[in-house]
Design a protein that fits this description.
about 70 residues, mainly alpha, elongated
Length: about 70
């Protein structure tokens, strides 16, 4: 992984994504990312459900989980 980071830097990249991770200070994966200077950038994603039956199933599971 370190070789990939060095190759990206020599190619002119200033940022590398280590993937999504919740900002939990107790999580060792998050701690490793912080050591590399990672910062939390929120991702605003939305689901697009095209089928009415899938939409209804999603709403029911959402109501049951709340």
């Amino acid at each position: 992984m370190w070789e990939s980071i060095n190759r990206a830097w020599s190619s002119g990249y200033e940022r590398v994504s280590f993937g999504r991770q919740m900002s939990d200070p107790e999580n060792p994966r998050f701690q490793n990312k912080v050591k590399f200077g990672a910062e939390q950038i929120p991702i605003h994603s939305r689901r697009v459900l095209l089928s009415k039956s899938i939409l209804m199933a999603y709403k029911v599971t959402k109501m049951l989980s709340d």
